[in-house]
Amino acid sequence: MENTKPNFFKRIKLAIFNVEKYQEFALEKPNIAFKYFIKLILVLAIIISLSAVYKFASLSEFFIDAFKNDFPEFTFSNNTLVADEVINTVREGKQIELSMIVDTQIESSDEKVNEYIIELNKHENGVIFLKDKVIIQLEGLVGQSSFSYEELNVNGLGEITKQSIMETLNNTNMGVLYVSFFISILLYMFMLYIISTAIETVLIGVIGFLTAKIVRLNLKFTQTLSMAVYAITLSVLLNAIYTPIRLLLGFNIEYFSIMYTLIPYIYIITAILMTRSELIKQQIEIGKIEKVQKEVKEELDEEKRKEIERENQKRKEKKEEKERQQKKNNGEQPEGSEA
């Protein structure tokens, strides 16, 4: 017997290109849609996490190289940074630009800090190291973030120098670091997307349920919720494509979020309307079949009635013939004959 249940990738294809299959998905057990949902979000989380690790690796190499070649010799102890010289430089790499300012001769209250901040605002990424504070500006963060060394709570590490940091970096297994980062970001992304997408799926299911009521289609909420799981498929895959592109290349689509939100609603409403249309067609076909069946039944009944009449006529004729033969054998004159 052929297994008619499609696998995960087949379901993705059907969910995107065969909306008429949604009525079949709605009739399946809810746990099947739930398993599909988990796998779909896991695929999204893996793709985005891999992109994040690649971005992290690229940035790590860039920042390590910038630290090695551009950052001056320094000593950090008692929450105070002391550098050998003042540095104000801009380092450019592949698809990234970093403004780095090191001036430990002044504290955060000095007026010259404002000049450095104005300079920092000209770049998407930058960092200012002062005697008592660090100011960071990174692409994707809202505004600038500043931290006093006391807030960072690194004083317990003892005296830190550029040489000690370089030795630590050289002894660090970056492969293990990237794997650890991947696992951490994967768990974070999976939980983030599974919660946010689940909420969105429930809302889509509610819209589907209300639409079904409006068009007088008898569907349970669990059925429209299963349909909603498949309706989000295209949006999730588009997000899995767009997010890495935006993360790695900086390419931005202005109205992507609107498109991402509307697509599932279009899918589920279309699926419900198609289901309603299909049911109407089926009812029409059933009506036609019932009409034909009625006509055939009438023809069979008429044929049966005629057959019964013929059988009765034959029996009557046989009876009459038998009576005539009996009278003849008895020497009686058959009726209607002359003596």
Helicity, in percent? 55-70%
Mean pLDDT, to the nearest integer, reads 85
Number of structurally distinct domains? 2
Order of helices and strands: HHHEEEEHEEEHEHHHHH
Given as residue ranges, the uncertain stretches (5+ residues, pLDDT < 50) are none
- Taking the alpha carbons of the first and last residues, their distance comes to 83 Å
What's the shape? rod-shaped
Structure description:
The protein folds into 2 domains: 8-53 and 177-271, no CATH class; 68-167, no CATH class. The protein is α+β, with helices and mostly antiparallel strands. The longest helix is centred in the C-terminal third of the chain and has 74 residues, at 256-329. The chain is built from 10 helices and 8 strands. It starts with 7 loop residues before the first helix and ends in a 10-residue tail after the last helix.
Q: Quick gist of this model?
A:
The chain is an alpha+beta fold and 339 residues long. It contains 10 helices and 8 strands. Helices cover 65% and strands 11% of the residues.
How does the SSE layout of this entry go?
Elements: H1 8-17, H2 22-27, H3 30-70, E1 74-77, E2 80-83, E3 87-93, E4 96-102, H4 112-120, E5 125-129, E6 133-137, E7 145-148, H5 149-152, E8 160-161, H6 162-170, H7 174-214, H8 221-231, H9 233-249, H10 256-329
Parallel strand pairs: 4-5
Antiparallel strand pairs: 1-2, 1-8, 3-4, 5-6, 6-7
Helix pairs in contact: 3-7, 3-8, 3-9, 7-8, 7-10, 8-10, 9-10
